[in-house]
Design goal:
Number of strands: 0
Strand content: under 5%
Shape: elongated
Distance between the termini: 45 Å
Largest sheet: none
């Protein structure tokens, strides 16, 4: 497939973005399963904000990576590739602040 062919695909169908989103969702899911301490603060207390942001990044990555698109506008925007990146960045900033 040539780059010219990719210019005509509808938004959200870029195979590279979908693959990266799926990989991000799977990695965040594995992180939450095998290292749940990542969502703890320096005193060992759960940080619900960091956990919620990581779960949002995971869900957005898995949803956009598999191509599932909700019918309504707000859920579609919350579960797109860009939202995955935003949630992952915010969660990393939150965790780095511990």
């Amino acid at each position: 497939m040539h780059r010219h062919d990719l210019d005509h695909l509808p938004t959200g169908h870029d195979p590279v973005a979908r693959a990266l989103s799926l990989l991000t969702g799977l990695l965040v899911a594995a992180l939450l399963i095998f290292q749940p301490r990542v969502a703890l603060d320096r005193w060992g207390v759960a940080d619900p904000t960091a956990a919620a942001l990581l779960v949002w990044a995971m869900l957005a990555g898995l949803a956009s990576g598999t191509g599932w698109r909700p019918g309504r506008t707000l859920p579609r925007r919350l579960l797109c590739s860009e939202s995955c990146l935003v949630a992952l960045t915010l969660s990393l900033l939150r965790i780095a602040g511990h």
